[in-house]
Amino acid sequence: MQKSSYTGPSLSSYQFEGLTNKGWVVEKATEVYKHHPNIVALMEIEIDNRFRKVVVKCFGWRNTISVIMSPFMRSRAQKTWDASWRLLEAGVPVPKPIAVFTARSRGFIKSNLLITEYIGPNQKVRRILQNEIVEAEQKNLILRKMAEMVCKMHQAGMIHRDLTPGNFLVKNDNCEIYLVDLNRLRRKSRITIAEKMYDISKMGLCSCNLENSHENCRWLYFLRQYEPEQFDRNFKALKRAILKTQVRRKL
Fold first, then answer.
1. Structural domain boundaries enclosing 220
2. Residue 6 in contact with residue 103, Cβ under 8 Å?
3. CA of 20: how far to CAs of 44, 49, 101, in Å?
4. Where does residue 88 rank: exposed (0-12), middle (13-18), buried (19+ CB within 10 A)?
5. pLDDT tops 70 at residue 157
6. Which of 40, 131, 172, 243 is 20 to 30 A from residue 123's alpha carbon, by CA?
7. Does residue 1 surpass a pLDDT of 70?
8. CA–CA separation, 222 and 217 (whole Å)
9. What digits encode the pLDDT tens for the residues 42-64?
10. What is the b/e burial string over 136-162, where b = at least 16 CB atoms within 10 angstroms of the residue's CB?
11. Are residues 111 and 126 in the same domain?
12. Domain with 145 in it: what CATH number?
């Protein structure tokens, strides 16, 4: 049975107690990006005697089973912390983690939160790809960077398991891209081609779903950047994976 834990710089008791209270986080936040089931907020807190802008993510519960099993599991905040450092080590850009806290009572998780660096003004890749004003060249640049990131992640033996354009953030000033929402990431000793393509299939890059050939297909462009030498093999596997994803979403 696991115990409460904290990793990170020293925080004042006022801040520490406040951060474990979702109402306080929402009240003190500069901006709240998400309210449910997790609270994700931009805040300014004192760290090492200076105030810094950070992003605080307070994790909520999605189902009762997770609550029951929590004494035997890492918290989602801890999973994200661990995944962040592994990805950074693999050369995949993610917001740098600053602190992680998991509060437990008799082993059961009562609250858990993660504090990361604020990367600056940003927007989700999904929004950019859907914006008709954004030029195709800019979109292709983003797709190329995403493909490189995903390739590095897979080569390092990790699958994201929630790889959607909404989980890639683009900085407004320099087009740097960061991967987020990492608590479902899984590390494996070996990842099959089918697993890699199933991970990618959730991105929904193009409405064609590889069912017909057409110009400017984002699926094809992504695959050519992902593993150019394995394009034909990956194309067939991705086509099967997209169909599998569609079937599961209908269930």
1. 122-250
2. no
3. 15, 21, 9
4. middle
5. yes
6. 243
7. no
8. 9
9. 999 999 989 999 999 999 988 88
10. eeebeebbbbbbebbbebbeeebbbee
11. no
12. 1.10.510.10
Domain C-terminal end among 117, 135, 158: 117
Is residue 26 scored above 90 in pLDDT? yes
In contact, 84 and 119? CB cutoff 8 Å: no
Residues 6+ apart with CB under 8 A from 13: none
Phi, psi of 78 (to 5 degrees): -65, -40
- Residues 86 and 194 occupy one common structural domain: no
Dihedral (C-alpha) 166, 203, 156, 174: value to the nearest 10 degrees?
-50
Of residues 88, 82, 83, the one with CA closest to residue 149: 88
Q: Are residues 173 and 60 in the same domain?
A: no
Do 98 and 15 share a structural domain? yes
CA-CA distance, 125 to 223, in Å (whole number)?
A: 17
Residue 63: its H or E element = none
pTM passes above 0.85: yes
- Whether 69 shows a pLDDT value over 90: the answer reads no
Per the structure, how many domains does the chain have? 2
Tokens at 66, concatenated: 């997770």
Neighbour order of strands in the sheet with 31-34: 5-7, 97-105, 108-117, 50-58, 39-47, 31-34
Q: How many residues does the chain have?
A: 251
Encoded tokens for 154? 């897979």
Same domain for 37 and 17: yes
> Which of 69, 94, 117 represents a domain boundary (last residue)?
117
